[in-house]
Design goal:
The complex is a heterodimer. By secondary structure, chain A is an alpha+beta fold. Chain A is 36% helix and 23% strand. The chains are: A alpha+beta, B alpha+beta.
């Protein structure tokens, strides 16, 4: 992996983004033990609304590809929307649906209005171990099955590519004829599925669904600012002794 | 060179998710063993991005993994 140590990634990110970090408490139960450790990268507008996300560690080429897609899509959407916020959001959600189709051959219907998210009092919340609400559970639009504009050969090629990406798994979907079939999705496919309905929401609204629903880790804290993002190096990159 | 000069319009889309006020004393960037320049907080990143007409990248890091390959 090592995307964030790659020179090309660094050059592109530093030219187009201002980067920061936060720590999020998460864990998985493995046997009787809590384990955790993951990363999610949120590409945001300057006002903090999420344009795109890379869920989990990926290789440099994938990270660069996703970062370039964000910049290109922002430039195209800005040009078309002519400064109209609602139009920009609609274009961005449609772009996520289109990228899902290009990457995996799967179709979702983008939701171009804002779904009302749950409040802290609702049951549909990710909660910390003491029961305090942390973030809403965001519903993703259903996968409608293979895009019917693709030939079987095109669809199978995209599914094969999707199967080689991190987090690849089978998911059931209901096709247009009502038939149930299994299709391949991966972490990025589910990100696009989610953001076809929720891009331009705040990170705080989205992070619970990214960690719990996509990466399979339970969140235990809200995101907090920290001094050192990576516990094994100092800010100059010098490896630290184990504490 | 790519320019994001039209990005300022994004800040006008709706209510701000971060409170955007420039820090009185900006922190210096650190790379933390990567090739990326990090600022100290998402709030500071938002303020700098608005000023420099760039986008914002925020990493959410969880757990105490000691494996550099994760990043």
């Amino acid at each position: 992996m090592g995307a964030l140590t790659d020179a090309k990634v660094g050059a592109f990110v530093n030219e187009n983004f201002v980067t920061s970090y936060q720590k999020v408490g998460t864990f998985k139960i493995v046997g009787n033990n809590k384990q955790g450790g993951n990363v999610a990268s949120y590409f945001c507008a300057p006002d903090g609304r999420v344009l795109h996300c890379v869920a989990g560690p990926v290789d440099a080429a994938t990270f660069l590809n996703e970062a370039k897609w964000v910049v290109d899509t922002v430039l195209a959407a800005n040009k078309t929307s002519k400064g109209e916020g609602a139009k920009f959001k609609e274009l961005f959600r449609k772009a996520h649906a289109e990228k899902l189709r290009n990457d995996t051959g799967l179709k979702v219907e983008p939701i171009t209005w804002d779904i009302e998210t749950t409040t802290d009092q609702d049951a549909l919340q990710y909660k910390d171990p003491s029961g305090r609400p942390l973030a809403p559970k965001l519903p993703a639009p259903p996968i409608d099955g293979p895009d019917v504009r693709l030939t079987d050969k095109e669809f199978n090629a995209r599914q094969q590519r999707a199967n080689g990406a991190p987090g690849a798994r089978l998911e059931a979907c209901v096709g247009q004829g009502g038939e149930v079939r299994k299709v391949v999705v991966n972490n990025q496919a589910i990100v696009h599925q989610l953001l076809a309905a929720h891009s331009m929401q705040k990170i705080e609204t989205m992070y619970g669904t990214v960690f719990e629903n996509i990466l399979g880790e339970k969140v235990s804290t809200k995101p907090v600012d920290v001094v050192r993002p990576f516990s094994w190096v100092d800010q100059d990159g010098k490896r630290l002794q184990k504490e | 060179m790519r320019t994001l000069s039209t990005l300022a319009v994004l800040a006008l889309l709706a209510g701000p998710a971060f409170t955007i006020d420039l820090p009185t004393k900006p922190t210096t960037c650190a790379r933390h063993g990567t090739t990326i320049d990090f600022v100290g907080s998402p709030k500071e990143a938002a303020a700098r991005a608005k000023k420099d007409e760039k986008l914002v990248l925020v990493l959410h890091i969880s757990g105490h993994f000691e494996d550099a390959s994760l990043t």
